[in-house]
Amino acid sequence: MVIKAVVINWEDAPWMVLETLGVFAAHPRSLTKVIAGPKSEICKTDKFDFLVSIFEPGGGVNSHSHEKTGTEHIFHILKGRGIIDLDGEKRLLKRGTTVWIPPNVKHSIVNNEDEPLFMAVVSVPPE
Question: What are the C-alpha distances in Å from 85 to residues 21, 33, 42, 53, 60?
Fold first, then answer.
């Protein structure tokens, strides 16, 4: 089987509520575009997830870790500001910030600002 490259415009992916896909942690007041991964409508791969998420003011990701699945994350902030909690240590998220999260680190995010927070997410292995 020949695997071909895919060129994707993120605007072609629909916004969705991640809980409808059976994700591990609740993502209140957020929407996500599944750009690539097992649940993508555009680019199917079982190697990783690539998502773009928007967190409205007050939105975020509830605290969790990935010890059982071994999933690692890279978060990259595209626009906006918020706070990430990594094993009890709170850090500022702002445009240009990148965060790597190993599987055993408990993490949560909250958009505590008045503007939306946009974030690109890579997860390996996909969830």
Answer: 24, 23, 32, 18, 11
Encode pLDDT of 32-67 as tens digits. Answer: 999 999 989 889 999 999 999 999 999 999 999 998
Q: What domains are there in the chain, each with its CATH number?
A: 34-78+86-124 (2.60.120.10)
Radius of gyration of the chain, Cα coordinates, nearest whole angstrom? 14
Beta strands in 15-59 (DSSP E): 30-36, 49-55
Residue 93 tokens read as 């998220």
Decide: helix, strand or coil at residue 57: coil
Sole residue written with tokens 């906006």: 80
Long-range CB contacts for residues 1-6, cutoff 8 Å, separation at least 24: 6/36, 6/42, 6/43
